[in-house]
Write a structure and sequence with these properties.
single chain, 78 residues, alpha+beta, Alpha-Beta Plaits, 2 helices, 24% helix, elongated
Amino acid sequence: MARYILHFTGKGASPDHAKQRLAKLPDVTIVDESARMLLVEAPPETISRLSKELPDWNWTPERMIPPPEPPWPKLRSP
């Protein structure tokens, strides 16, 4: 299953009904949450359907970004 970041773009605090709706779906797992964002695991078909049902939420696939290389040179081992 893919992971998606859901960001609430409406006014005020994010509504609890959206979180409750997601929690009831058998193929959706809420992995993490903050005040206006959720990280969920779900199949792409479910995400495309939910994006129409929850218009105040933006959906983005999770991306892993590696940390940058340090700016100093690497030390050689003896």
